[in-house]
Write a structure and sequence with these properties.
The chain has 280 residues and is α/β, with parallel strands linked by helices. It is 47% helix and 11% strand. It has one domain: Glycerol-3-phosphate (1)-acyltransferase, CATH 3.40.1130. It is globular and about 50 Å long.
Length: 280
């Protein structure tokens, strides 16, 4: 296993037993034969199952931006956060449309996929343990969260065919407006400036938490939408000092780009049926 994906003993020791076991398992699935097996599963089984459960295929705009990226460098997708399955759906679309994707990671809130068995089962069955690394964001998990950010930076620095999905907001926006966004967490600014991957903004709409709620949205005529934007240029930040204020400014700039995609989605789908969407 690459050193960047090994979980230090002090990190494991800071977690409760169930999280410790799930993190060991997920980390083991990120390299070598286990990673190849996981990738085969998520492409051949997980992606097909997710799209089948959605029923109607997601409506995708801006796909040309995805096809235009350099396949020899990692790609970081930055998306708004509306439901627990946001990146499971994005991953399914990528895997079915873009054969050159060979590695996939999307960090998650540890409380969902690493503390409860429903989230753990979703991680394994739908994504082949691609929901990695986890962020717990509690007062007693500082070591684990610092390790997760360092690991995420390492994953975004190298690896042709690697795609990483990240939510700058850090938590779900549970309000009734599907086009509203939360402020970015400063961690996204550090990630971008330290790792320097290719970056595309993404806006996601039409997803709920749970397949029952998702079917209700489908019956109401609310389509699932993914809108990819053009690459984010990091060059303007080259000379900026590496400090919290800079990271916050970079995060705000990212959210501005996602907001532009949200505005385009609102212009196209902003009818009464789309406004019925609220995470369940």
């Amino acid at each position: 296993m690459p050193a960047s994906l090994r979980v230090p003993d002090e990190v494991l020791a800071s977690l409760p037993p169930r999280s410790r076991r799930l993190l060991r398992l997920s980390a083991a699935m990120q390299a070598g034969a286990a990673a190849r097996c996981g990738h085969w599963w998520r492409r051949s089984v997980g992606a097909r199952a997710v799209l089948a459960l959605l029923g109607d295929p997601p409506r995708v705009d801006g796909w040309a931006h995805v096809e235009a990226v350099d396949p020899g460098r990692p790609l970081l997708l930055l998306a708004n956060h509306r439901s627990y399955v946001d990146f499971f759906v994005v991953a399914a679309v990528l895997l079915r449309r873009l054969p050159r994707v060979t590695a996939l990671h999307f960090p998650v809130k540890g409380a969902y996929c690493y503390e409860g068995w429903p989230g753990a089962l979703l991680n394994g069955a739908a994504s082949g343990f691609a929901a990695f690394p986890p962020f717990f964001r509690r007062s007693d998990t500082g070591a684990a969260d610092a390790w997760a950010l360092d690991t995420l930076v390492a994953l975004c620095r190298e690896g042709g065919g690697r795609v990483v999905g990240f939510h700058p907001e850090g938590t779900r926006n549970q309000g009734p407006d599907p086009w509203a966004l939360l402020p970015a967490q400063p961690g996204v600014g550090r990630l971008l400036l330290e790792a320097r991957p290719q970056v595309l903004p993404v806006f996601i709409a039409g997803l709920a938490n749970g397949w029952g709620a998702q079917r209700a949205l489908a019956r109401a005529g609310v389509p699932v939408r993914l809108r990819f934007g053009p690459p984010i240029d990091l060059a303007p930040w080259d000379a900026a000092p590496r400090r919290l204020r800079t990271y916050a400014a970079v995060g705000a700039s990212v959210m501005d780009r996602i907001a532009e995609l949200a505005a385009a989605d609102r212009a196209r789908y902003g009818d009464s049926r789309s406004r019925t969407h609220a995470p369940a």
